[in-house]
Backbone:
């Protein structure tokens, strides 16, 4: 094999991998699968896609081995190939936030219009946990919580928060987290909690970021 052909093949394969990532819905699918495995039906519902479109996007990711599928009965459960896929998504996300000013502008515009709150980092949350003066609230769907969550976190999905808010300990700071910095569940939860008199803030990152730092986490078996 000639050197030119060698480079063309290798870089061509890498370009194909990058091309598979180069779609907003496929990036959202990776963000979802970083939380827990999903069926096509669940992904279609979460992203407001038709079943056909969701399946097509999954097949593109599967073709380059970014996702795998496990069939159970009539259902096919998709999951990320490994933690390296999460790491690539997180690196792309961070690169975009650093290099593309429009992302930060969009975030700031969205939050300034709807939410006013303080955000805390993972390091700041760890310190609060050491001092044992914080309530940690996971507002993702229960399936994602069961797949993995921050220790001592309470599970109250965002669509149940209003009716279950009376059960939260009063007089303590509440730190809310969800899927990541682009997840609006935490923003909505902080807004609701503050309106009910709670001192609430959101975690800047999400559970996959916590897990990527090799910090302890809990998972519940089905």
Residues:
């Amino acid at each position: 094999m000639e050197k030119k052909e060698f480079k063309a093949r290798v870089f061509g394969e890498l370009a194909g991998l990058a091309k598979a990532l180069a779609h907003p819905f496929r990036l959202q699918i990776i963000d979802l699968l970083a939380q827990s495995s999903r069926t096509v039906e669940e992904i279609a519902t979460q992203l407001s896609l038709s079943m056909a479109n969701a399946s097509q996007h999954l097949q593109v990711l599967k073709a380059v081995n970014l996702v795998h599928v496990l069939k159970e009965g009539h259902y096919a459960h998709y999951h990320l190939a490994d933690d390296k896929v999460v790491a690539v998504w997180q690196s792309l996300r961070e690169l975009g936030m650093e290099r593309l000013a429009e992302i930060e502008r969009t975030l700031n515009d969205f939050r300034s219009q709807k939410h006013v709150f303080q955000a805390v980092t993972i390091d700041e949350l760890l310190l609060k946990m050491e001092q044992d003066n914080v309530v940690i609230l996971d507002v993702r769907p229960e399936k994602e919580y069961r797949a993995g969550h921050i220790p001592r976190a309470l599970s109250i999905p965002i669509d149940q928060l209003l009716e279950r808010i009376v059960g939260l300990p009063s007089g303590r700071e509440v730190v809310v987290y969800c899927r990541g910095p682009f997840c609006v569940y935490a923003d909505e939860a902080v807004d609701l909690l503050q309106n009910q008199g709670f001192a609430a803030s959101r975690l800047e990152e999400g559970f996959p970021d916590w897990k990527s730092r090799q910090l302890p986490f809990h998972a519940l078996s089905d």
User: Anything to note?
Assistant: The chain has two domains: 3-85, 105-212. The chain is about 55% helix and 15% strand. Residues 152 and 178 are 15 Å apart (CA to CA). The longest helix spans residues 3-21.
